[in-house]
Amino acid sequence: MPPASPVVPTVEEIAIAVQVLRRGGLVAMPTETVYGLAADARDVEAVRRIFAAKGRPADHPLIVHLHDASALDLWAREIPASARVLAEAFWPGPLTLVLRKSAVVDPAITGGQDTVGLRVPAHPVARALLVAFGGALAAPSANRFGRISPTTAAHVREEFPGGEVWVLDGGPSEVGLESTIIDLSGPRPRLLRPGAVAASAIEARIGPLERPDDRAGPRASGRLVAHYAPGKPLELVDQASVAEHLHLHPAGTHWIAPGPLPANCAGEALPADAEGYAKTLYAALRRADAGDGLRIAAIRPPDDEAWAAVQDRLVRAAAGSGGDHAP
């Protein structure tokens, strides 16, 4: 069977999206990481609509998406040489740089901080939209705050069924997890969130990264203890503890595992490699959340750099699962 043709919005659909943005509305755009809920980054009222639609706390900053690295000079007032190096190496792509913001960045975007997260997405639809719009787009993930990020247009429509968001369908996200975030606003570069761009690849270009805990460094997307969470309870289970878990919960658990499911476990086997697992994780969590099981159990993946972003998302999802977590 030949591979499925890529989903590509028409020129007319992108033109409509541009009109929505210029009127101060919201557009869900596909990126290589996850779908983003985009608004004109220069329109403060439009930016506030993002927070209202998501139920996002006003102090939780947004990432600004640029058409290319040349826009750095407009949006950041201090651009260290390390930022130029990383932009040259990894943009367009799943890397966000946190820099000292320029005067054009409204505090609504930054949660009142003096820093702003910037990235150039690689997805062709996001790039086409940015070029057609002719400006920058503030865009967190296109889901209700704290919940599972969307990796398809259908996921976005599930999150916003009222039609208040214009959705551009660009097919499933290729990466499937949010971008790596590197803070370059201080004296030493810091890894704030792991993603598809590995810390070792960044360190090979700019030297060692600090790895602060979630209370240190600027506030940034996805650094809350509880995030990316299903409504059902989610537990991370070591391979050696599967039998014990089955004894405690003989029925009602939906299992997710890298590679084959353990014996007597009902659920879904995801790809055994980190890249394939990451691409399919959020969709699998959504299916498990919508299914008949009472709880979700995820086999803890390997503890190495290739799996760092997956580990990060699963730990935060488990902390926030069950429907009663604080944002």
Largest beta-sheet characterization: 10 strands, mixed
Which term fits the overall shape? Answer: globular
Tally of separate helices: 11
β content, as a range? 15-25%
Structural class: alpha/beta
- The CATH topology of the largest domain is what? DHBP synthase
Radius of gyration: 19 Å
| Helix share bin | 25-40%
Straight-line N-to-C gap: 45 Å
CATH C-level class of the largest domain = Alpha Beta
CATH architecture of the largest domain: Alpha-Beta Complex
> What is the helix/strand order?
HEEHEHEHEHEHEHEEEHEHEEHEH
The low-pLDDT segments are 323-327
Average pLDDT confidence is: 93
As for the number of domains, it is 2
Topology, number of strands: 14
Write structural notes for this entry.
This protein is an alpha/beta fold. The protein has 2 domains: 11-206, DHBP synthase (Alpha-Beta Complex); 234-320, no CATH class. The chain contains 11 helices and 14 strands. The strands form 2 sheets. Strands 1, 2, 3, 4, 5, 6, 7, 8, 9 and 10 form a 10-stranded mixed beta sheet that branches. The protein has a 4-stranded parallel beta sheet with strand order 11-14-12-13. A hairpin with a 6-residue loop joins strand 9 and strand 10. Helix 1 packs across helix 6. The longest helix is centred in the C-terminal third of the chain and has 17 residues, at 274-290. It is globular, with a radius of gyration of 19 Å.
